[in-house]
Design goal:
This protein is α/β, with parallel strands linked by helices. The protein has 29 helices and 15 strands. It has five domains: 104 residues, Arc Repressor Mutant, subunit A (Orthogonal Bundle); 148 residues, Tex N-terminal region-like (Orthogonal Bundle); 124 residues, Nucleotidyltransferase, domain 5 (2-Layer Sandwich), CATH 3.30.420; 149 residues, Tex RuvX-like domain-like (DNA polymerase, domain 1, Orthogonal Bundle), CATH 1.10.150; 74 residues, Beta Barrel (OB fold (Dihydrolipoamide Acetyltransferase, E2P)), CATH 2.40.50. The strands form four sheets. It has a five-stranded mixed sheet with strand order 6-5-4-7-8, with helices on both faces. It has a five-stranded mixed barrel with strand order 11-12-13-15-14. α1 packs across α2 and α5 runs parallel beside α7. One of its GO terms (molecular function) is mRNA binding. This is Transcriptional accessory protein.
Length: 719
């Protein structure tokens, strides 16, 4: 483990002691959110990103070690393990090198080289690759009628087969070709005879690009096009690499049988080496593209989950549609269903009068404050109906467009059935759209993260890795925000550090049977929740107006003594934290954390962190973010003109730019070249849910495209 820790520290450029302590905590089963927030003094204030990198590196190191042991065992069982080979395998720094070293010993179908060896031609192959003098007499000794080697060429052909296989299995040769193909290689695509009805892959019918310049969305599009047999792909180098590869093995022209070596290497390259390395490089660039796509999805998901809640409002959710109508669901301030119906304001029925009567009556009777419209099929026609209704009836409501990604998944899920057993899937979908406004995080956690469409090519990537990454991101967000222990659902609680689905369910059951939790310590009374789980979960679970005032903060119970000492030093009682919020910061700013820690033998980092938590008791970090745009009227694409300046909401961020809802039927695109400065990664500039000011550059009503430019003052990311 010491060697692993040193390697991780060196690769991440972190002090060894920080990595060592972080690994120790991870090996104890502590979660990353817990370590990042409550073990800063032990890790030297490593953040979540650094801890994730350490965790991933540790996981890879364990996988590498396990694979080395397995490969060594297999080779030893075959009786072919030498001291040199063992040292090479043990010293390998990555899985690829281990696999390269293992390649000659893999069980496989009998090859042409195997058959040549069985005929006794290995010595001849060794002679050809090393001799500086021609010795035809020696070569002729390999003619053997019993082995069907009837002439000189038969012997040479078999020897070349052996040489070709050896050439393709040489570690140095494979590493060189692999790196050159990735750095200097070109990917080419051409159209097949299969029909591409919508011309989805038109850009790739005759495409050529250096592999090093490909971006993730291009790679994923190319491989998808190949899978659908619309295009064919090949990787190639722009020059002859074989002389360089032969030189690596000392196959040079001063050798007597150099021509035989050339022929063997040419055969090896086309038949064995290039197909194998091409597969590896294809897998490598695909994995890198998938990793990037997963990163984009995770970042967008995080920003979506951190959308600020609009709180306790009566909300009407509208799930738009055409033939089957628009589903309505009015949700009370507590999230309960008050009313649901179906209206038909959109084509083909266009029932404006009948639909208006239902909506106006519901708004007036139930005191609806906000209308939430899903952004799916029929969304803009529904928006036109709602905006007209507000204007004509002078209704005291506003509306907003929300993503309905995952609403259909939720509506048919076990969770939705348990919540609303008497409603159909369409009503549950409208309920979800409404409740996303009240508290996006609480609603989105009920849906499998990968079903929420804020990514790029999410169906083309490794699904298990996608799920792992997204679950980790959701865990991070839920713990960042924290939960109210007396109101949080099991779907939120299961993401809290130290808890799982069973523990979350037991907490909800305990709450139902015994009433509200009065303090954090009562968590220990929950079935199956022991001291270890309590240690990790307690700080993220808040209790408002309980028997312990500090339970309403993010201060961990283990630091209550320090928290009380800090408060006493400025003559504050814990019970006053929530009543004197305006004074707290000013009072706590009088404290010198270093001096207080030194004089009382407290840890300086812990003191500084506790002071920060006390300054913002019960803070929901989402409250500091921009609230979504609420509208009362709508534009059409025909209303837009070049140069018009508008305000909009970022809906999705991808590698080439960001899609922005500016209140018309079609989202506009801010290409990354139009973000006010040279932008390599749009995620560095914009985030999902961010409110931005844009200028219209282009309106193409025929192709339903809007080109936008980000205006200065909008290009600071919220995250």
């Amino acid at each position: 483990m010491n060697e692993i820790i040193l390697d991780i520290a060196n690769s991440l450029a972190l002090p060894r002691w920080k990595v060592e302590n972080a690994v120790e905590l991870l090996e104890e089963g502590k979660t990353i959110p817990f370590i990042a927030r409550y073990r800063k003094e032990k890790t030297g204030e490593l953040n979540e990103i650094q801890l994730r990198e350490i965790s991933d590196a540790l996981e890879y190191a364990k996988k590498l070690s396990s694979r080395k042991d397995e490969v060594l065992r297999i080779i030893e069982e075959k009786g072919k393990l030498t001291d040199e080979l063992e040292a090479s395998i043990k010293g390998a720094k990555n899985l690829q090198l281990v696999e390269d070293l293992y390649l000659p010993f893999k069980s496989k179908k009998k090859t042409r080289a195997d058959k040549a060896r069985e005929k006794g031609l290995q010595p001849l192959a060794d002679f050809l690759k090393s001799s500086r003098i021609k010795d035809e007499v020696f070569v002729f000794t390999f003619i053997n009628a019993e082995q069907e080697i009837l002439k000189l060429e038969d012997a040479l052909e078999g020897a070349r087969d052996i040489l070709a296989e050896e050439f393709s299995q040489e570690v140095a040769v494979r590493e060189k070709l692999r790196s050159l193909l990735k750095e200097k290689g070109i990917i080419k695509s051409s159209r097949t005879e299969k029909e591409d009805e919508r011309e989805v892959y038109r850009d790739y019918y005759d495409f050529s690009q250096p592999i090093s310049r490909l971006v993730a969305h291009q790679i994923l599009a190319l491989f998808r096009g190949e899978r659908e047999e619309i295009i064919s792909l090949k990787l190639e180098l722009p020059y002859d690499i074989l002389p360089t590869l032969r030189d690596l093995l000392g196959w040079r022209d001063y050798l007597a049988y150099y021509e035989e070596l050339i022929e063997a290497s040419v055969d090896s390259f086309s038949r064995l080496l290039m197909p194998s390395i091409e597969r590896e490089v294809r897998n490598l660039i695909r994995e890198e593209a998938e990793s990037r796509a997963i990163h984009v999805f995770a970042r967008n998901l995080r920003d979506l989950f951190l959308q600020p809640p609009l709180g306790e409002k009566v909300v009407m959710g509208v799930d738009p549609g055409y033939r089957t109508g628009c589903k309505l669901a009015v949700i009370g301030k507590d999230g309960s269903l008050l009313y649901h119906d179906v209206i038909f304001p959109t084509p083909p029925k266009n029932d404006y009068v009948g639909s208006s009567m239902k909506v106006v009556q519901a708004i007036n009777t139930l005191n609806v404050e906000l209308i939430s419209i899903g952004n799916g099929t029929g969304s803009r026609e529904t928006e036109l109906f709602v905006s007209r209704l507000i204007r004509e009836h002078n209704l005291p409501v506003k509306y907003m467009i929300v993503t309905e990604s995952g609403a259909s998944v939720y509506s048919a899920s076990k969770v939705a059935i348990e919540e609303f057993p008497d409603e159909d899937v369409t009503t549950r979908g409208a309920i979800s759209i409404a409740r996303r406004v009240q508290d996006p995080l609480a609603e989105y956690v009920k849906i499998s993260p990968e079903a929420i469409g804020v990514g790029m090519y999410q169906h083309d990537v490794n699904q298990s890795e996608l799920k792992r990454t997204l679950d980790r991101e959701v865990e991070s967000v839920v713990n960042l925000v924290g939960v109210n222990l007396n109101t949080a659902s099991e779907h939120l609680l299961k993401y809290i550090s130290g808890l799982n689905s069973r523990a979350a369910l037991n907490i909800v059951k305990h709450r139902a049977e015994n009433g509200a939790f009065r303090n954090r310590k009562e968590l220990l009374k929950v079935s199956g929740l022991g001291p270890k789980a309590f240690e990790q979960a307690a700080g993220f679970c808040r209790i408002i107006n309980g028997s312990e005032a500090l339970d309403g903060t993010s201060v961990h119970p283990e630091s209550y003594e320090i928290a009380r000492f800090i408060l006493e030093s400025v003559e504050l009682l814990p019970e006053e934290l929530f009543d004197r919020k305006d004074e707290i910061t000013e009072l706590l700013d009088q404290i010198d954390p270093e001096a207080l820690a030194r004089e009382n033998s407290f840890n300086q980092i812990t003191v500084r962190e506790v002071i920060g938590m006390l300054k913002k008791p019960g803070l929901d970090p989402r409250g500091e973010l921009e609230k979504p745009i609420l509208r009362t009227d709508v534009l059409s694409m025909e209303d837009l003109s070049k140069g018009m300046e508008l305000e909009g909401t970022v809906r999705n961020v991808v590698d080439f730019g960001a899609f922005v809802d500016i209140g018309v039927k079609q989202d506009g695109l801010i290409h990354k070249s139009k973000m006010g400065r040279r932008v390599r990664d749009p995620l560095e500039v914009l985030s999902v849910g961010q409110i931005v000011k844009v200028r219209v550059l282009e309106v193409d009503t025929k192709r339903m495209r809007i080109g936008l430019e980000l205006l200065s003052g909008s290009n600071e990311s919220r995250s």
